[in-house]
Amino acid sequence: MDQSVRKRRHSASSATEADVLIVGGGPAGLAAAIYLGRFRHRVVVVDAGESRAMLIAQSRNCPGFPEGISGPDLLQRLRAQAAEYGATLVQDQASSIEPTVGGFGAETNAGRIVARKVFLATGVVDVVPAIPRLREAIARGSVRLCPVCDGYEVIDRQVAVIGHEAQALREALFLKQYTQHVTMLARYLPDFSASTRRVAMEENIAICDTFKKFVPTDSGYQAVLK
What we know:
The chain is of the alpha/beta class and 226 residues long. The protein contains 7 helices and 11 strands.
């Protein structure tokens, strides 16, 4: 028998089997694992441990936690609950997923997983500017990545918005319902269009063209102007 065929057959027979493979172990993937486990499905969750939720210092929009809960604590609770209903949690990466007869096959560093269904809960990856100690600032809450999640926390505070033109304007307009002190920083996109500047002026959103860099402080950042 051809050695490669023998090897493939051995790999298939030793693969981890599941009804559902969930790729991504953030809040969405773990919530799916809890429901599917309660439906008595065999569930495997493959997660690389890089969920954005790990950076949440305190979330106050999670139902049932009016005083807030940190991202790491929320993930720990969700993992424990998913495991309680039989989900297998694997810290790994799915390097490839391909259709097979009757389902899908996924390759991970630890081996192959075959499942009838695949649930993709990989989330998003933030593209952030090169700011010193940024991850530390996000974990502390002085830099935030989601206005929808954290807008309430900046009521009547000074807020600077960094982003590509259309996104920065959209987020700045959204934040205006929480604070009148919103400034768009042009350091990373110096040429805002005339239409963007017109909308910003109409909405009383400041645009700072002289921003140079951020300097970390104990409480957040100080902006240095040119």
